[in-house]
Write a structure and sequence with these properties.
The chain is built from 6 helices and 6 strands; from the N terminus they run E-E-H-E-H-E-E-H-H-H-E-H. The protein is an alpha+beta fold. The chain has a 4-stranded antiparallel beta sheet with strand order 3-2-5-6. A two-stranded antiparallel ribbon has the order 1-4. The radius of gyration is 22 Å and the shape is globular. It starts with a strand and ends with a helix. The relative contact order is 0.18.
């Protein structure tokens, strides 16, 4: 699958939720946030140099990548908690997933810094070849040299 790299600082978390949670678990937390008391106030200091959180993971199955601020993860602290409130449709619609997560946190009393950014994750598939496998030598919109290569590869 494809490789995704995340680097972050502050109080946000990155969580991968798998759409096949029944078979492979709900997912996992990918980054660690800096949730110490007063940490955001330290950002105002000119000498503060935060230590970034870094994670690399392979997207080997479909799911959702959720970037959530502390206003959301205070009410949905684990991948299990997030997965529990999402509908099956949400795993195919990032906007719906973000809405369900934020509405749940808001309904649970969340008021401050309640943000979720969600993107669909799909495993990388092998690209479609530029030549037609069905009829060797038949290549759409290519030069004679490309047709010859296509015929030799087919």
């Amino acid at each position: 699958g494809g490789e995704i790299e995340l680097i972050g600082v502050g109080t946000a978390r990155a969580v991968l939720l798998t759409s096949d949670a029944k078979h492979n678990g709900p997912g996992k937390q990918l980054t660690n946030e800096d949730a110490r008391a007063g940490i955001m106030t330290r950002w105002l200091a000119t000498d503060y140099q935060p230590e970034p959180s870094h994670a690399t993971f392979h997207a080997d199955r479909p799911g959702l990548l959720v970037l959530a601020t502390d206003g959301l993860w205070r009410h949905l602290p684990t991948p299990e908690a997030m997965a529990k409130i999402l509908t099956e449709e949400a795993y195919h619609d990032a906007q719906l997933a973000a809405n369900q997560l934020t509405e749940h946190a808001r309904d649970a009393g969340g008021e401050d810094d309640l943000t979720a950014v969600v993107t669909l994750i799909a495993p990388v598939t092998r690209p479609t070849p530029w030549f037609d496998n069905q009829s060797p030598g038949s290549v759409r919109g290519t030069s004679a040299a490309q047709q010859e290569i296509g015929a030799n590869l087919a």
